[in-house]
Amino acid sequence: KEITVAARLGGGDPDTNPRLRLAMDKAREANMAKDSVQNAIKRGAGQLDGVTYDEARYEGYGPGGAAIMVDCLTDNRTRTVAEVRHAFTKNGGNLGSDGSVAYLFRQVGQFVFAPGTSEDRVMEAALDAGAEDVLKNDDGSVELICAPADFATVKAALQKAGLKPELAEITMQPNAESSLAGGEAASLRRLLEALESLDDVQDVYTTAVID
Question: Does the pTM of the predicted model rise above 0.70?
Fold first, then answer.
């Protein structure tokens, strides 16, 4: 779905369409067949008939006041919003209006490296390419953040330096996080799992950190 949408919005050439290039990279990592990738690109570019997918974003609140943003790719918005609303309502949350929580997040490029990776080496390789921040997480992994526009440049700089991230994606990060524990945390976990299980849902983001 993501390849088709990326090709429809930005054209079928990955050299001039960073979103398509990222989607193709993810497909390769998931061992998706080359023919399937090319057919998805052709569908998006209008060269093949098939289902048309649209992007849809839904926003709401979960238990404990946790803000939640849900990104979907759908061929039927009516079905998708009904399923998302049901997941919220059934699990102690409520679906909000457009813009109700989006301001609590920002879009970033994110690279995560295995524990033991040199923080200094990552910074040195990517600083001139547009890295905004490099930090070490509690589990020892190293995380690099950049602007979405610099994602491809930073990725190329890391590859040139022989650094291979375990995760490389453009994602949404909360501007501030809040911790949840106990019953509220358990309820939020159920809500997030219910949303992630829906076929049309691609990504789920929250401001909450579950203890």
Answer: yes
